[in-house]
Design brief:
Blueprint (H helix, E strand, L loop, with lengths): L1 E6 L26 E10 L6 E11 L2 E9 L7 E7 L22 H11 L3 E5 L18 H16 L4 E9 L1 H12 L3 E7 L5 H9 L1 H7 L4 E5 L5 E5 H7 L4 H5 L6 E6 L10 H9 L4 E6 L14 H17 L6
Parallel strand pairs: 1-12, 5-6, 5-7, 7-8, 8-11, 11-12
Antiparallel strand pairs: 2-3, 3-4, 4-6, 9-10
Helix pairs in contact: 1-9, 2-3, 4-5
Length: 331
């Protein structure tokens, strides 16, 4: 069944501080090692007990991947869990949610994890190798789409090894949405998929983000440096650019028949135009699906200083989706 919602929110578009990337297929299962430390306890959302937050690590393809594992209060065995995948140049917490005085107390993904936990859903948010804390093997310049798909696949394997984890869903933002689409198609344990502002056409999006000249130069040089639309400088190796032309998330989604929700902003200037690219996912996906269109930007207004009510709309829609499509154990 297809449902298309349009949710209108307060709008004040600003230059966005997040972009998009992509992923590649042919990912073999990986052997995953576990580790843990740094456990934090937080309020339980009115259900008694405490939400537990733990920093974990696992090994993948010679590198260490860091993550934050959040369990709901009074979690029982086989708790539904969402793997959260960050965007291009991002990290596992994603961007700060700026208030009117431009201070912040949470981020896109920490807020999302809290609301998931308050509704009985666990989460794991990871830093892809080359991002955040996952830097022991290489820096961001070594980022590849296939490598990020491999990390996401390994994270699903790590979750599947945990005794308290039940059904597994994926939530991916931008690049992480594209990675999530390919991972969900390739790993049978993923039961539900949510994509926020996902890249649908890698070449088109990265000519916008990096510039057409940089994309062409990147195909011929060992490494290429580009200036991003928000002024940051990024260096990427040739393989990144080669994989732009070998990566197709829409082909992957055409082979994924489980539940799919796509959330996009009509004012997105990174993955643009919207909702057209969001609709592309709907067109090629066969199965239960929903397209949610918000009056917002690529990252749901988190940098505008309005407290990001659009982000809260996205979170509410996606929590409802996971409640409908994953088996949730109630208190």
């Amino acid at each position: 069944m297809r449902r298309i919602f349009t949710l209108f929110t307060v709008m004040a578009l600003l230059a966005v501080g997040a972009a998009s990337a992509v992923a590649s297929s042919d990912v073999a299962p990986v052997e995953v090692a576990v580790a843990s430390d740094d456990i934090e306890h937080r309020g339980g959302g009115g259900h008694g007990g405490e939400i537990t937050e733990e920093v974990i690590t696992f090994e993948n393809d010679g590198g260490t991947v860091y993550g934050t594992f959040v369990m709901p209060a009074n979690a029982k065995r086989k708790t539904a869990t969402v793997l959260m995948l960050h965007g291009f140049t991002g990290n596992r917490d994603e961007g700060p949610v700026l208030q009117p005085d431009f201070t912040f107390t949470d981020t896109m993904y920490s807020r999302t994890a809290q609301v998931l936990a308050e509704n009985g859903i666990a989460s794991l948010r990871i830093d892809f190798r080359g991002s955040g804390e996952s830097l022991d093997q290489f820096g961001f310049e070594g980022t590849t789409f296939s490598g990020q798909v491999s990390d996401a696949y390994a994270a699903v394997e790590w979750l599947d090894d945990q005794r308290k984890v039940g059904d597994i869903g994926i939530l991916g933002l931008s690049q992480g949405g594209l990675v999530g689409a390919i991972t969900a198609e390739s790993h049978r344990k993923v039961r539900s998929l949510v994509l926020w502002s996902p890249v649908a056409n890698p070449v088109d999006t990265y000519k916008t983000v990096l510039g057409s000249d940089s994309v062409l130069t990147g195909l011929t040089q060992p490494s290429t440096t580009a200036i991003l639309p928000w002024g940051a400088e990024v260096t990427l190796e040739r393989r990144f650019f080669e994989e732009l032309y070998a990566t197709d998330p829409i082909a992957a989604i055409s082979h994924y028949s489980k539940p799919l929700q796509v959330v996009v902003g009509s004012g997105d200037t990174i993955v643009t135009p919207q909702p057209n690219f969001g609709q592309t996912y709907m067109t090629y996906h066969e199965g239960e699906e929903e397209l949610v269109v918000l009056d917002t930007d690529h990252v749901f207004d988190v940098f505008t200083g309005n407290g990001a009510p659009a982000l809260d709309d996205a979170i509410a829609a996606s929590v409802d989706w996971f409640e409908d499509t994953l088996r949730i154990r109630r208190w």
